[in-house]
Amino acid sequence: MNLPSPTTTPGEPARGGDNALAALVIPVTPLTTRCSVSEAGERFLDPTCAALLSLPVVEAGRVLGCITRHELMLRVYMQPYGRELHGRRPVTTLMDAQPLRLPIDSSIEAAGQLIGRQLRRPITEDFVVLDADGKYAGMGIVLDVLRALEVKVDDHARELEGAYRRLKASQHRLVQSEKLATLGQLVAGLAHEINTPLGYVQNNLGMTRDLLPAAAEFVAAADELLAATPEDDWQQHAERLDAARAAFDPSLFGDLSTLLDDALHGVRQIGDLVGNLKDFSRVDAAHTDGVDLHGLIDAALRIAGHIVKRRNVQVQCRYGEVPPLRCAPAQINQVLLNLISNAAQAIDHDNGLIVIRTQMLGGHALVAVQDNGRGIPPEVLPRIFEPFFTTKPVGQGTGLGLSICQQIVQAHGGRIAATSATPTGTRFVIALPLPGAAATVKA
Fold it and tell me: Percent of the chain scored above 90 by pLDDT?
């Protein structure tokens, strides 16, 4: 009988495609029905069969059964007069007529499942491999299948680990993309916010520049008069001082101070806006201790200030006693900015109001952002945190804002929830754990 050549040695895990069971086939010359029990025992002593627990009994290519080392030991070699009673009998008298059979085109996974369902413990037999016609093709060792499964599990684990790393990288890029999209929507209003203080800074500096030559002439004339000697022409010095004083009133020095103070105030406003933008747009994955929650809210309000002003919305901040948090400031700032911007955009009447409350409850810091806008319909509310879900017109929303907010809050060990009633408004609540707190809270 022609048997397939082995492509792997016993004990070597197989690698390959889905039909990798073929790589585990061991070409074993089968026993025939004419073989005696004693001859079967001698075959197990052959070095070529050293790794096998079973030997097949085949007739005309058809598998009749298998005889195992375990059966021979129990029924023949460990029983008194076992050899005398069974040694001359045909091997069919001790064989298992229902051995484990596997098609040669089986996948490793399918072979493992079948072995797991049918094989007894401890493992006392191997399995027979059948070709496409259902005839004997060789033997397979159970442990080889288990090792091959272990290799595939390790491969899948590495693939999953790589997919997880790629997913985390994609998620990070998605957060940054949404952040940049938000910045793009805010940049026009922020440019106006920066232009307002920049305008009076330029105006005040221009006025100061225009006053400085006259002031310099006045100071120089006074200095010259004070330094004059009795031999100098005092009349000439006095006339120069009078002319300088007519061009510049010393009382204008007070105006200069005011102009410069206003200019410094404008520069500080610009610096605050730029600093808030820098904090918002930076990549901030590390959690920082001692973060002031109210400071984050104030920064988000400054960035979103032009949206609130343009819609004539009043903002009331009712801050409670909240200790410092441990969080990624830029990420929490992004969440707050998104909620404040959404609240302002949901208001389409002249008496708009956003109320922001904070308090400490059950080891968590709570932030509630409530508006009196149009509200969220009941059929839409359960879907607001779904990625890419949005009710805004095309081009005005990505549908990722609230989804990313939820991911950020959950990554901080917190929760975010929303309640709404049309047309009375919407309320979002964020619960962030305080350092060392183990309690849970329902938002």
Answer: 32
C-alpha to C-alpha distance for 390 and 398, rounded to whole angstroms: 7
- At 372-410, the pLDDT tens digits run 998 988 888 888 888 766 766 544 555 567 888 898 899
* Three-point CA angle 321, 326, 332, nearest 5°: 85
**CA–CA gap between residue 401 and residue 93 (Å, rounded):** 75
Contact 338, 405 (CB under 8 A): yes
E runs forming strands in 352-414? 353-361, 364-371
Written as one string, the DSSP assignment of 326-347 is EE-HHHHHHHHHHHHHHHHHT-
C-alpha closest to that of 186 among 281, 54, 46: 281
Tell me if 281 sits within 8 A of 179, measured CB to CB. Answer: yes
Between the CA atoms of 340, 345, 350 and 356, what dihedral angle is there, to the nearest 10 degrees? Answer: -10
Residue that the structure tokens 């319909």 belong to = 377
Of 102-116, 183-197, 294-308, 349-363, the range with the lowest mean pLDDT is 183-197
Cα separation, 196 vs 272, in Å, equals 14
pLDDT digits (tens, 9 = 90+) for 294-344: 999 998 888 888 788 888 899 999 999 999 999 988 889 889 988 998 899
Q: How many CB atoms lie within 10 A of CB 105?
A: 14
320 touches 357 (CB < 8 A): yes
Q: DSSP 3-state assignment of 126?
A: coil
Q: Which amino acid is at 185?
A: Q
With the C-alpha atoms ordered 109, 111, 114, 115, is the resulting torsion angle positive or negative? negative
CA separation for the pair 172, 191 (Å, rounded): 27
How far apart (Å, rounded) are the C-alpha atoms in residues 322 and 291? 11
Q: Judge whether residue 16 has pLDDT over 50.
A: no
The DSSP H or E segment spanning 57 is strand 54-59
pLDDT band at 285; cut points 50, 70, 90 = low
Helix (H, G, I), strand (E, B) or coil at 287: coil
Flag whether the pTM goes above 0.70.
no
